[in-house]
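Folding Problem: From Residues to Backbone Shape
Fields: amino acid sequence; protein backbone structure tokens
RECORD BEGINS BELOW THIS LINE
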Amino acid sequence: MSDAASNDVIDQVERSRSSKIWNRFVGILRLSPTAAVGLMIILFFALLAIFAPWIMPHDPVAAYTDRVLQAPSAEHWFGTDGNGMDVFSRVIYGAKFGFGIAIPAVLISLLIGVPVGLIAGYRGGLLDEVLMRFFDGLRVFPSIILALAVVAATGQSLLNVVLVLGLLDSPVFARVVRAEVLALRSSNFVESAIAAGNPTWRILFVHLLPNAIQGAMAQTAVRAAWAVRISATLAFLGVGIQAPTPEWGAMIRQGAEFMVSGQWWVGLYPGLALIFLVFGLNLFGDGLQDLMDPRRRTAK
């Protein structure tokens, strides 16, 4: 095959792949416009996080002592903060922490909650009661109060914030998976698997998990929005990631101090970024639930 023919084949494959991706996106848009809009917002912030080093016009932690609290201008689009740092660059870099907290926290919640929900729902009895009562105990206290106490005790670091949020949110996934397993454990395919001599781990992770995971997956985007919001709240309250690290919650906290004196831009722009990311995650999560549950889509 000649080089020209080979290039034509490669171009056709790439066009076919692009067409499939576009058709899939159009399909999502038709089935759930909410999910499509939320996905576009999430992708926008994801691109900011990925390409932040090339998009930021200034170093996000570089302090310009001669430019403290400058209003938005051609050089500093979102103005500067109380340390003379460029707010626009810091808002862009803050997207890294939004995703850097939300994604690991949700993964930890899934890794804890899904196996517990599987075991509790399948075994039932005393084991179910003990596991669920422990998780209910985590949900009794207001999440923000418990997160404040744990992070304050363990230390203000990104890793501690992620671990705490992942642990506190795991009962949500455990409850969802357990409910699905309770409805499935008497099904014919489970009884057939037991009769065939399959070990418990295989019944749980091969037969039950694929049928019980949909509800949990539909919750991931909503719980990621919760993780972003709580992590920003912790930073705003002075517990969690702190300045000069460009995290939106910490930036809003600093901006609140200058709002009364007229420097509104310090806290406004990170606040808007936080609102839009949480809004996009919630939209995508709601649309994802519609896509995975046709009954909800029909009701709408």
Observations:
- Residues 87-123 form the longest helix (37 residues).
- The chain has 13 helices and no strands.
- The CA atoms of residues 29 and 36 lie 5 Å apart.
- The mean pLDDT is 81.
